[in-house]
Design brief:
Blueprint: H1 2-7, H2 37-46, H3 65-70, E1 75-77, E2 83-85, E3 118-122, E4 125-129, H4 134-137, E5 146-152, E6 165-168, E7 172-176, E8 181-187, H5 190-207, H6 224-243, E9 244-245, E10 248-253, E11 256-261, E12 266-269, H7 272-281
Antiparallel strand pairs: 1-2, 3-4, 5-8, 6-7, 7-8, 9-10, 10-11, 11-12
Helix pairs in contact: 5-7
Length: 282
């Protein structure tokens, strides 16, 4: 209520003659340089009283009265040529800093280097921004899509997992929903989507009757390392039989081809982006 009562008497001032100079008041006027007009007139009346103050909200220009009073002179020349004392105190200046660093602009790209980002059009200009910079340098914001899929699965699940659930490449969460289902949760992006597709394909192939890995009772005594190696060989053989060429997996995305040697883990591709995505996914 106190703030409201302070501003209820606000009015537009057209000339200094209409101003009732009684009691404390604030006058907001232009021009900011105090060259003439409604900003210069009250300044000349109040500049000699130390109880008054002049707030300059912006840059100052050389040759203006504003530039003069910032240097704290003892006197100023009025518009009628008479000299008046300047008793207003020059208070501490307030400086505002803005973060103008853009992630894509931190390094100048070389000729032929691929630049990846979001193309933003504003009026007749275009800018390429990193997704994290979008809300800082534009009025747009980025949103993420959280995806979830439920798959039929009746196999074993790691009982030591919390939830029970576990993470795959720190991108996807696999949760045990019931004895017949598991669910996959991830935040959608090109690499996470590829990881989720690989996990879905793996789970669906494990659930099929063929190929089927039969574990004999006497094999239960084998070490965990041996079992993991056997599972990897079966999965690799399955993937090579479905998508392989000369013992290597062939991955094709938008016309770009990558060859994956699962035994050594080497990935060969002319497209560096696809090469990195395949390496992370596998």
């Amino acid at each position: 209520m106190a703030v409201y009562q302070t501003y209820i008497n606000t009015s537009a001032l057209k000339c200094i003659e209409n101003f009732n100079d009684v009691g404390p008041s604030v006058v907001m006027a232009s021009p900011s340089g105090l060259q003439s007009g409604l900003s210069r007139q009250p300044f000349e009346i109040w500049c000699s009283d130390k109880k008054n103050a002049c707030v300059i909200p912006g840059n100052v220009v050389e040759g203006t009265l504003t530039k003069t009073i910032i240097n704290e002179p003892k006197e100023v020349t009025l518009m009628n040529g008479i000299t008046a004392s300047l008793n207003m105190q020059n208070c501490q200046s307030v400086e505002l800093y803005f973060n103008s660093e853009k992630r894509l602009a931190e390094k100048t790209p070389e000729v032929g280097e691929t630049v990846s980002g979001l193309l933003v059009k504003k009026t007749f200009t275009y800018q390429i921004m990193a997704p994290d910079d979008l809300h800082v340098f534009s009025q747009l914001s980025t949103e993420y899509i959280s995806q979830r899929i439920t798959i039929a699965y009746t196999g074993a699940f790691d009982e030591e997992s919390e939830g029970p659930a576990f993470r795959v490449h720190e991108r996807l969460t696999v949760k045990y929903e019931s004895e017949k289902h598991i669910s996959l949760h991830w935040r959608s992006d090109p690499i996470s989507d590829m990881v989720s597709d690989s996990v879905v394909a793996l789970v669906l192939n494990i659930s099929r009757e063929i190929p089927k890995v039969v574990v004999e009772s006497e094999e239960a005594t084998k070490t965990e390392e041996e079992n993991n190696k056997k599972a990897e060989k079966v999965i690799h053989a399955l993937l090579v039989s479905l998508f392989g060429e000369n013992g290597k997996l062939v991955i094709s995305v938008d016309g770009n081809v990558a060859h994956l040697d699962k035994q050594s883990g080497n990935v060969e591709s002319e497209n560096e982006g696809l090469k990195e995505r395949v390496r992370v996914a596998f």
